[in-house]
Please model this.
Amino acid sequence: MPAAAQQAPAAAGVSAPAQPVPTDIRRLTILVRDIESSLKLYRDVLGLKVNYDAEIKVSGVALPAGVPGNRTRLVLLNGNDPWIGWIGLMQFTDPPLPDPGPYPKRLGLGGHVLVVNTDDAAARCALAKAVPGVTMTAEPRLQVYEGRNGAPPIRVMGCNIFDPDGTFIEINQILK
Model:
Protein backbone atom coordinates (compact mmCIF):
# COMPACT_ATOMS: atom_id res chain seq x y z
CA MET A 1 0.00 0.00 0.00
CA PRO A 2 1.33 3.49 -0.74
CA ALA A 3 2.28 5.47 2.35
CA ALA A 4 -0.19 8.24 1.53
CA ALA A 5 -3.62 7.99 0.03
CA GLN A 6 -4.16 9.13 -3.51
CA GLN A 7 -6.10 12.34 -3.88
CA ALA A 8 -9.81 11.58 -4.11
CA PRO A 9 -11.22 11.98 -7.61
CA ALA A 10 -13.30 15.09 -8.14
CA ALA A 11 -16.86 14.46 -7.04
CA ALA A 12 -18.93 13.93 -10.15
CA GLY A 13 -21.64 16.55 -10.46
CA VAL A 14 -19.99 18.92 -7.93
CA SER A 15 -18.00 21.98 -8.91
CA ALA A 16 -16.13 24.60 -6.96
CA PRO A 17 -18.24 27.58 -5.94
CA ALA A 18 -18.13 30.54 -8.34
CA GLN A 19 -17.27 32.72 -5.33
CA PRO A 20 -15.27 31.36 -2.39
CA VAL A 21 -17.37 30.53 0.65
CA PRO A 22 -16.29 32.17 3.94
CA THR A 23 -15.30 28.98 5.78
CA ASP A 24 -12.96 26.01 5.39
CA ILE A 25 -13.08 23.02 7.73
CA ARG A 26 -9.56 23.04 9.18
CA ARG A 27 -9.43 20.38 11.85
CA LEU A 28 -11.36 18.06 14.10
CA THR A 29 -9.68 17.57 17.48
CA ILE A 30 -10.62 14.42 19.38
CA LEU A 31 -10.09 14.12 23.14
CA VAL A 32 -8.57 10.68 23.73
CA ARG A 33 -7.76 8.45 26.69
CA ASP A 34 -4.38 7.24 25.35
CA ILE A 35 -2.77 9.13 22.50
CA GLU A 36 -0.34 6.30 21.69
CA SER A 37 -3.29 3.91 21.18
CA SER A 38 -5.01 6.46 18.95
CA LEU A 39 -1.85 6.96 16.88
CA LYS A 40 -1.86 3.23 16.07
CA LEU A 41 -5.04 3.89 14.09
CA TYR A 42 -4.71 7.44 12.75
CA ARG A 43 -0.96 7.39 11.95
CA ASP A 44 -0.08 3.73 11.48
CA VAL A 45 -3.25 2.40 9.78
CA LEU A 46 -4.76 5.43 8.04
CA GLY A 47 -1.33 6.81 7.15
CA LEU A 48 -1.88 10.37 8.37
CA LYS A 49 1.31 12.38 8.89
CA VAL A 50 2.20 13.80 12.31
CA ASN A 51 3.07 17.46 11.84
CA TYR A 52 2.86 18.69 15.44
CA ASP A 53 3.41 16.93 18.77
CA ALA A 54 3.70 19.06 21.90
CA GLU A 55 2.71 19.40 25.53
CA ILE A 56 0.47 22.39 26.12
CA LYS A 57 -1.29 23.87 29.13
CA VAL A 58 -4.98 24.62 28.67
CA SER A 59 -6.79 27.69 29.91
CA GLY A 60 -9.93 25.73 30.80
CA VAL A 61 -11.86 28.54 29.09
CA ALA A 62 -11.31 28.44 25.33
CA LEU A 63 -11.50 24.64 25.44
CA PRO A 64 -14.20 23.88 28.02
CA ALA A 65 -12.52 20.78 29.45
CA GLY A 66 -10.41 20.25 32.50
CA VAL A 67 -9.35 23.26 34.58
CA PRO A 68 -6.88 26.10 33.95
CA GLY A 69 -3.32 24.82 33.92
CA ASN A 70 -4.07 21.19 33.03
CA ARG A 71 -1.31 19.70 30.91
CA THR A 72 -2.19 17.99 27.65
CA ARG A 73 -0.42 16.39 24.76
CA LEU A 74 -1.65 17.58 21.39
CA VAL A 75 -0.76 15.74 18.19
CA LEU A 76 -1.89 17.15 14.85
CA LEU A 77 -2.03 14.93 11.77
CA ASN A 78 -2.79 15.71 8.16
CA GLY A 79 -3.53 13.89 4.93
CA ASN A 80 -2.72 15.22 1.49
CA ASP A 81 -3.80 18.83 2.02
CA PRO A 82 -1.43 21.10 3.98
CA TRP A 83 -4.26 23.31 5.27
CA ILE A 84 -7.63 21.53 5.56
CA GLY A 85 -8.91 18.21 6.85
CA TRP A 86 -6.52 17.75 9.76
CA ILE A 87 -7.15 15.55 12.79
CA GLY A 88 -6.01 16.58 16.25
CA LEU A 89 -5.60 14.11 19.09
CA MET A 90 -5.51 15.57 22.60
CA GLN A 91 -4.85 13.67 25.79
CA PHE A 92 -5.14 15.35 29.18
CA THR A 93 -2.00 14.09 30.93
CA ASP A 94 -1.85 15.94 34.26
CA PRO A 95 -4.37 15.36 35.58
CA PRO A 96 -6.21 13.02 33.21
CA LEU A 97 -9.87 13.67 32.48
CA PRO A 98 -12.25 11.29 34.26
CA ASP A 99 -12.83 8.11 32.23
CA PRO A 100 -16.31 8.39 30.73
CA GLY A 101 -16.72 4.61 30.72
CA PRO A 102 -17.72 2.59 27.69
CA TYR A 103 -18.55 4.57 24.60
CA PRO A 104 -21.84 4.15 22.76
CA LYS A 105 -22.21 1.29 20.30
CA ARG A 106 -24.74 3.25 18.22
CA LEU A 107 -24.87 6.85 17.12
CA GLY A 108 -27.42 9.28 18.50
CA LEU A 109 -28.03 13.00 18.68
CA GLY A 110 -24.76 14.86 18.92
CA GLY A 111 -22.90 11.93 17.40
CA HIS A 112 -20.65 12.48 14.43
CA VAL A 113 -19.20 10.51 11.53
CA LEU A 114 -15.62 11.13 10.42
CA VAL A 115 -15.24 10.08 6.77
CA VAL A 116 -11.75 9.41 5.41
CA ASN A 117 -10.91 8.53 1.82
CA THR A 118 -7.95 6.22 1.40
CA ASP A 119 -5.98 4.36 -1.26
CA ASP A 120 -7.02 0.80 -0.36
CA ALA A 121 -10.06 0.66 1.90
CA ALA A 122 -10.24 -3.12 2.17
CA ALA A 123 -6.62 -3.41 3.34
CA ARG A 124 -6.83 -0.44 5.73
CA CYS A 125 -10.11 -1.77 7.16
CA ALA A 126 -8.42 -5.11 7.90
CA LEU A 127 -5.54 -3.30 9.63
CA ALA A 128 -7.94 -1.09 11.61
CA LYS A 129 -9.89 -4.12 12.81
CA ALA A 130 -6.68 -5.46 14.38
CA VAL A 131 -5.98 -2.29 16.43
CA PRO A 132 -6.78 -2.85 20.12
CA GLY A 133 -9.94 -0.97 21.12
CA VAL A 134 -11.31 -0.59 17.58
CA THR A 135 -14.83 -1.95 17.04
CA MET A 136 -15.82 -2.73 13.46
CA THR A 137 -19.53 -2.16 12.86
CA ALA A 138 -19.57 -2.94 9.11
CA GLU A 139 -17.03 -5.02 7.19
CA PRO A 140 -15.68 -3.70 3.86
CA ARG A 141 -18.38 -3.64 1.18
CA LEU A 142 -19.30 -1.84 -2.02
CA GLN A 143 -21.90 0.89 -1.68
CA VAL A 144 -23.42 2.73 -4.64
CA TYR A 145 -24.91 6.20 -4.19
CA GLU A 146 -27.00 8.20 -6.62
CA GLY A 147 -24.88 10.66 -8.62
CA ARG A 148 -25.30 14.39 -8.11
CA ASN A 149 -26.82 16.69 -10.71
CA GLY A 150 -27.24 13.88 -13.28
CA ALA A 151 -23.72 12.47 -12.83
CA PRO A 152 -23.18 8.69 -12.87
CA PRO A 153 -23.57 6.72 -9.61
CA ILE A 154 -20.83 7.09 -7.00
CA ARG A 155 -19.17 3.76 -6.12
CA VAL A 156 -17.52 3.53 -2.71
CA MET A 157 -15.70 0.61 -1.08
CA GLY A 158 -15.50 0.95 2.67
CA CYS A 159 -16.09 -0.15 6.24
CA ASN A 160 -17.24 1.50 9.46
CA ILE A 161 -15.53 1.47 12.86
CA PHE A 162 -15.54 3.08 16.28
CA ASP A 163 -12.02 4.18 17.26
CA PRO A 164 -10.70 3.36 20.78
CA ASP A 165 -12.45 6.46 22.18
CA GLY A 166 -15.80 6.07 20.43
CA THR A 167 -15.32 8.31 17.38
CA PHE A 168 -17.28 6.74 14.52
CA ILE A 169 -15.25 6.53 11.31
CA GLU A 170 -16.13 5.56 7.76
CA ILE A 171 -13.00 4.39 5.97
CA ASN A 172 -13.72 4.57 2.26
CA GLN A 173 -12.25 4.51 -1.20
CA ILE A 174 -14.03 6.16 -4.09
CA LEU A 175 -13.94 3.78 -7.05
CA LYS A 176 -14.12 4.67 -10.72
